[in-house]
Structures are given as C-alpha cells and as structure tokens.
Amino acid sequence: MEGLASPIPRTVEDVFTDFKARRAGLIKALTTDVQKFYQQCDPDKENLCLYGLPSETWEVNLPVEEVPPELPEPALGINFARDGMQEKDWLSLVAVHSDSWLLAVAFYFGARFGFGKNERKRLFNMINDLPTVFEVVTGTVRKPKEQSATHNNSKSKSSGKQSRPSESQTKVVKPPPKEDEESGEEEEDDEQGAICGACGDNYGTDEFWICCDICERWFHGKCVKITPAKAEHIKQYKCPGCSSKRVRV
Questions:
Q1: In angstroms, rounded to a whole number, what is the distance separating the alpha carbons of residues 244 and 185?
Q2: What is the mean pLDDT of the segment spanning 123-127?
Q3: DSSP state for residue 88 in the 8-state scheme
Q4: C-alpha angle 171/175/179, rounded to 5°?
Q5: What's the DSSP call for residue 46?
Q6: Residue 23 vs residues 26, 130, 132: alpha-carbon distances, Å
Q7: Are 172 and 222 in contact (CB under 8 A)?
Q8: Count of alpha carbons within 13 Å of 89, Cβ hemisphere only?
Q9: Confidence check: pLDDT of 189 > 60
C-alpha cells in the first residue's frame, strides 16, 4: 500500500489536499474504473481493501501487516459481499465505508500534528463542502438550501418535501432454518432486530441468515456464501471478519 509515498500532510490545507486526492481516487474506482475494480474484488481471494492514494489513484490490496498500521485501515473484506448483492448496492456499501475511511485518515493527521479546535472545525467545514463518495456514486447529491429562503414569506409549503431514493431489496427464495422450535418466538424477536453484518440490510423472514458464533453478528447467507445445506455441516461458524482476525499485541 502506497498511502505514505508522498510527503506527510502537516497543515489543514495539506490534509485537505490529501483528502481530495484520496477521494478522487476512490470515486474513480467506483465510477469510471468500476469494471476493473469489480474484477479485482474476487470473492475467492483473501480479505481485500480499497485504498485511495494521494496520487488520485486507487488500489485493491490486502490490509497492511504492520500493527498498529501507519494509517487507519479501510473496511476489510469488501470482496466477500460482491456476488451476494446487486452491483449498485455493493458499490454503494463500499462507497459508505470509503467515506468513513477518508474522514478517519484526515483526522488521524489532525490528531497526529496537534490540530486545535479551530483547525479541526475548519478542516471539517472544508471536507463537508464536498459531496461524499456515496453521494457521487449513487447520484444523490443534495443541493444546499438557500439562506434567503428562511426570510421569504411567500415560501411554498410544498417545498419542504424531499424525495428519498428507494433502496432495492434482493429476494431470496430459501427461508431460514428453525434450529429450536421451543424457543422459536424468542429467537424470532432477536433476529427481527438484526442487520446483516456484510450489507447492512435489515432482517427478513423470507431470507436465509446465519449467525457468527464469535462476534454474534447475523449475515445473509448469500453475502457470506453459505447455503442452508452447507450450514447444516458447520459446527461453529466464523464470519469473514472473525476468520481473518490476527492476534494484536
């Protein structure tokens, strides 16, 4: 990973320039280079991460082995959910994690070089003026509200309505197996509040789910490539995240 190949940013302006360059690389991966990015995220490979580089380019690579890492690490294992979701939903999920990573890197530099309250606020405002990677990838960039609208007495009441993009849902024909009939009602209540640890969608009764025995998070079977038949032969299930964890000292 080439994240520190360029000079380390030390001022607010330097950090913002670094942020914009990494952001440009991530947007390129998820838009103009999307086919190349898709092919590199092979679910049969080990846990992969998407990195935005200061050179306005991107790379898909394994996480760094250095502990702790020189920079905050992106979301791990983005390739595992690729074939279990619609492509646009998968790209949206990667975009959300990319936004989180960009902020983490920017404010890591801010903490490292002792940015004060005013510097952190200025950095955030500069970043906040840009559309997020998610907004660019999904085309949901919101127009800023005009300041004069609050003082306009002839403001239309209907102007307050905002349309929200509908989230597509992938239907799965195989229902989840009932492991314990006696405690079925209690288990159902527990599952109803769950969200998939891979794609972030809510629990659905018409979908097959599996719970990690280590972190106790629920996953769509399709997102982690586990079928009901395969699940019957698993004594202890470990999700991709728990399977890849290394002992940290």
A1: 33
A2: 96
A3: H
A4: 150
A5: S
A6: 5, 10, 9
A7: yes
A8: 16
A9: no
In whole angstroms, what is the distance from residue 31 CA to residue 40 CA?
Answer: 14
- Asked if 177 contacts 207 with a C-beta cutoff of 8 angstroms, the reply is no
Provide the token pair at 192: 């109803």
Radius of gyration, CA atoms only, the chain: 21
E strand or H helix at 50: strand 49-52
Helix (H, G, I), strand (E, B) or coil at 25: helix
Count the residues in the chain: 249
Bigger pLDDT: 205 or 160?
Answer: 205
151 burial via Cβ count (<10 Å: 0-12, 13-18, 19+): exposed
DSSP string computed for 15-55: HHHHHHHHHHHHHHHHTTTHHHHHHH--TTSS--EEEE-TT
The pair of three-digit structure tokens given for residue 9, joined into one six-digit string: 């940013």
pTM: 0.57
pLDDT for 131 equals: 95
Nearest partner of 224 among 249, 199, 244, judged by Cα: 199
Pick from 66, 64, 67: nearest CA to 249: 67
Asked if residue 53 lies in contact with residue 22, where contact means CB atoms within 8 angstroms, the answer is yes
Residue that has been written with the tokens 């975009």 in this structure: 95
> Angle between the 87-112 and 12-30 helix axes, to the nearest 10 degrees?
170
pLDDT tens for residues 57-109?
999 999 988 878 889 999 999 999 999 889 999 999 999 999 999 999 999 99
